[in-house]
Design brief:
7-stranded mixed sheet; 6-stranded parallel sheet
Length: about 900
């Protein structure tokens, strides 16, 4: 059977699901389609013509190459298709976004037919996704005296690809839709359990919020033609949690506009809002799509006559509504006055949502076009020997004389591109920076690959020190979905130049290690900038930013990222940890104490947390930097001591060496290069030439938070508070409770020790606790299942060498097998300990889940509704987050322990400890 016949069958299957034909990305299938387009008498001629015109993915897909070549033949008159004139062929080429289409346009523009060359030049002047091979052709043609090349370069130098675009409308009318009360997680917009379908945009769009919500959005659109639907997080922040381009894609699919009539299901210009604004990572993704993200501030804290905040009986601030955004409210965004209106009434200034840079993103249909456009303008001006005219909004530069630098300001100044020598920039400055390390994870990786194809990139930027494609989010279950997607992803990324968790050639052992742990290991410089396709890209060396799949693609393709230098909040510690406390409790207490110190205001939100925990090695320190995602911080920086940093770098080197010995290095010897850079950094520290990164004593912070270790008396549990009467306070990560709050009757249905929040010492704690319990009771009996997933294979190897793994095996009732991986997710659990394969496991929620309605006690990061556990008809599922010893003891008892039981269980156990050091 032909590929086309197979495709027809697939179309019928999708039609039964209410879906359109899946966009074509393969050359073989499109070649059959083209053959039928050429044959006007073919029974499939009309259908094939529509597929060719409207249903082919652009960029560097193999189908795009075939399409561009066929359009070239039509333009040259080598093939005649009455429905596709040469003029229409040029129009189709103009929507193909680089790669093969640029090659064809350059062939035509630099060819011998003057009329065709002029038409090709017109199209080229609108294109920005050109790479070195393309610009080199233009440069060589110009130097050889080609007039067309000169004309194109002059247009690029004037940035006509941008200036000739339609201006942004002065007034944008919107109709509101409240997607939920409280924080809106990206899990609501793009559920983790549907991760397998993210690259199939139309199919994935069906999982946004609920079918009922989708129908309500459609009804609003029908009742308000010409108005955009604005998705709102009422009394919360929009887009908290994971860095999901798919979340924004889904919002754009339902509420935005089609980017091109010839590219299916790629929509732009979503409009989103939140009472407390937009999560930083989500806002970046909104920029990628040329959307608008608004901080509504429509609820504020009530104050008395003296300006003092009024509290309720729980000691929480009472909120009062400033203006209504109830579903169906018609509002107007004025892009000139930069205000939000209800009719003639001004509601709020929204200038932060409509900065000059953001207005450019909106005009260009997304931030990529601006990034590439600036590069092409600079290139053209340099070739022509002229100064490029000022077209784009100048980067904001903030430089305060006499003011020192925070740690992040130092890193950004070191990595900045295009800044005048000697210029020192402070927070608020817009900066383009070189990126050192890039990470792509497996449930967003297919989208990153699509983005790379769309921007016509074929190889990783030489600026990047190292990049890694993980396999952790699909580690638990090697099902048909994973088998269909992951090998294809690994081959693409391996060919692109990344180190990949799975070997496309099948030669080295698959490494399903948690991506954040690997990135933490391959970050070998405390001055590094890291971009990763997950919100927990928060290394304890350097500064790391979780990002959407598009920003990851941009970093891979260009080696750069653009963003304002964020403000910083300094976090230091005083006092002494109690012997029975674990460092995870300090992490939770930091959030709790900060909120109390600032009367409920989250001063971490959208800022850098500069945390001074320099006596902890990178593995342990990551427990803090990782959790800063739940604190809603933009990123974090760990300030380390020289000797601690050297030890951390030595550990990183040893783990990178293991990767090399497994056969994971590539032809460019990226991993060996990282070891060499680590050695150089270690020598700089030892010699005193360049000590570990520290801020200046006179640096300026948005706020300074001092955490008192003396008052942390009990384990601290992050509670989703699923039954809070105030819906906006559920699932926030801000409700931190002491262990004794729960008494001795809070049932626990399942315990989970795993995720990026744990390190080797956590697994040793499990082993030591089980040994203690057996010694005290004569046996280890679980009253609830305990799932244990080491983050990495390296940790398992180290535990084996140190004798702990054999004890875990002894007490377990299930141990993973690499030879026989699970093909189905577990839906029922026995009261035993499960030793699962390294990876995300329950934390991700896309494969394994607890039983519906369970109360889960976990070491993981997320407590969002439906993530680890879904609701049942009998009760709400809840995922409480705590330290490893609390989780283990809860599984043993089948309930949350009392403080006395907890203290007895950890006596003599080496918990993760931290001792503060004085700071300036």
């Amino acid at each position: 059977m032909s590929l086309y016949k197979d495709y027809i069958n697939e179309i019928e299957e999708r039609k039964n699901q209410g879906l359109n034909p899946k966009p074509i990305d393969g050359a073989e299938l499109l070649s059959e389609v083209i053959a039928q387009v050429k044959d006007a008498e073919n029974e499939y001629h009309e259908d094939s013509l529509k597929l060719f015109i409207y249903n082919v993915l652009p960029g560097t897909t193999s189908a795009a190459g075939v399409k561009a070549k066929f359009l070239k033949e039509i333009i040259l008159g080598e093939v005649v298709v009455k429905e596709i004139t040469p003029a229409f062929a040029f129009e189709l080429l103009s929507h193909m976004k680089g790669g093969p289409s640029i090659e064809v346009l350059l062939d035509l523009a630099l060819g011998n037919d003057e009329a065709i060359a002029l038409e090709a030049a017109k199209v080229l002047k609108t294109q920005v996704f050109l790479y070195d091979a393309d610009t080199l052709r233009l440069k060589e043609a110009f130097l050889a005296g080609n007039a067309i090349a000169k004309d194109i370069l002059e247009s690029y130098a004037k940035a006509e690809f941008f200036t000739k675009l339609p201006e942004v409308a002065e007034k944008i009318d919107v109709v509101t839709f409240i997607a939920g009360e409280g924080d809106i997680s990206t899990d609501l917009l793009s559920p983790g359990n549907q991760a397998h379908s993210r690259s199939d945009r139309e199919l994935h769009g069906q999982c946004m919020i609920t079918p009922q919500a989708q129908q309500e959005i459609k009804a609003l659109q029908a009742a308000h033609p010409g108005k955009s639907v604005m998705l709102i997080a009422e009394k919360g922040t929009m887009g908290v949690g994971s860095s999901r381009m798919s979340g924004v894609n889904n919002v754009a699919l339902w509420t935005g506009k089609q980017a091109s009539p010839y590219v299916p299901f790629v929509n732009i210009a979503p409009i989103v809002a939140g009472t407390n604004g937009i999560s930083p990572i989500f806002l970046t993704t909104v920029d990628v799509t040329g959307g608008i993200g608004i901080d509504l501030k429509n609820w504020v804290k009530k104050t008395d006559a003296n300006g003092k905040v009024v509290l309720n009986e729980k000691g929480e601030p009472i909120l009062e509504e400033v203006y209504s955004v109830a579903t169906g409210t018609v509002l107007t965004i004025n892009t000139k006055t930069k205000k939000l209106y209800n009719g003639e009434k001004e509601l709020i200034d929204i200038s932060k949502a409509l900065t000059p840079q953001k207005m450019e993103f909106i005009k260009a249909g997304g931030s990529y076009a601006i990034v590439f456009g600036k590069k092409i303008q600079t290139f053209a001006a340099k070739v022509l020997g002229i100064t490029a005219p000022t077209v784009f909004a100048p980067s904001k530069e903030v430089s305060v004389e006499g003011q020192g630098l925070t740690a992040v300001e130092k890193i950004f100044n070191r990595n900045a591109v295009g800044v005048a020598p000697g210029k020192v920039l402070h927070a608020g400055s817009d900066v383009r920076v070189e990126v050192n390390i890039v990470g792509s994870q497996d449930t967003t990786g297919l989208m990153t690959a699509q983005e790379l194809e769309a921007m016509a990139a074929t190889v990783i930027s030489p600026i990047v020190d190292g990049a890694y494609q993980s396999g952790c989010h699909t580690a638990s279950v090697w099902d048909k979905k994973a088998q269909a997607n992951i090998p294809k992803l690994m081959k693409f990324m391996n060919d692109f130049g990344l180190i990949t968790a799975r070997d496309p050639k099948g030669e080295y052992h698959s490494m399903t290690d948690v991506i954040h742990k690997v990135l933490n290991d391959i970050t070998i410089d405390d001055w590094a900038i890291i971009i990763g396709g997950d919100s927990h890209t928060r290394m304890s060396k350097g500064v790391a930013f979780g990002a959407d799949s598009g920003t990851v693609a941009l970093a891979l393709a260009t080696g750069e990222a653009s963003m304002p230098i964020p403000e910083s909040v300094k976090v230091t510690f005083k006092g002494t940890m109690k012997p029975h406390m674990d460092f995870r409790d300090v992490v939770h207490a930091t959030q709790s104490q900060m909120l109390k110190q600032f009367a409920g205001e989250n001063v971490f939100q959208g800022r850098i947390i500069e945390v001074h925990i320099g006596t902890l090695l990178a593995d342990q320190a990551f427990t803090f930097t990782d959790w800063t995602a739940e604190m809603k911080a933009k990123a974090s920086i760990c300030i380390s001591q020289d000797d601690t940093l050297i030890e951390s770098l030595e550990i990183a080197k040893s783990r990178i060496q293991i990767m090399i010995e497994k056969g994971m290095d590539n032809k460019n010897q990226v991993l060996q290069g990282l070891i060499d850079k680590a050695n150089k950094r270690i020598e700089e520290i030892r010699s005193g030439e360049k000590p570990a990164l520290t801020p200046d004593a006179n640096a300026k912070y948005y706020a300074e938070v001092v955490i008192d270790l003396d008052i942390i008396e009990e384990p601290m549990i992050a509670d989703p508070d699923v039954n809070n009467e105030d819906v906006s306070k559920r699932y926030t990560h801000d409700t931190i409770r002491e262990l004794s709050y729960y008494g001795d009757n809070k049932k626990v249905d399942l315990g989970f020790v795993g995720s990026c929040m744990v390190h080797k010492d956590d697994l040793k704690i499990v082993s030591q606790m089980l040994k203690n319990i057996e010694k005290q009771s004569g046996e280890v009996k679980f009253n609830a299942p305990l799932v244990v997933a080491a983050p990495t294979y390296n940790i398992i190897d180290e535990l084996k060498a140190e004798g702990d793994w054999e004890y875990l095996q002894k007490y377990s009732g299930f141990e993973f097998s690499d030879l026989l991986p699970k093909s189905n997710a577990r839906t029922e659990y026995e009261n035993i300990m499960y030793l699962e394969r390294p990876g995300c496991n329950l934390c991700m929620g896309n494969q394994e889940k607890a039983a519906k309605g369970d109360t889960v006690m976990a070491t993981s990061t997320r407590l969002f509704q439906g993530r680890v556990v879904e609701d049942s008809e009998r009760k709400k599922g809840e995922s409480l987050l705590a330290s490893t010893p609390v989780v283990v003891l809860s599984a043993i008892l089948g309930r949350i322990p009392t403080i006395e039981e907890y203290k007895a269980s950890v006596e003599g156990i080496n918990l993760t400890k931290f001792k503060p050091i004085p700071t300036k």
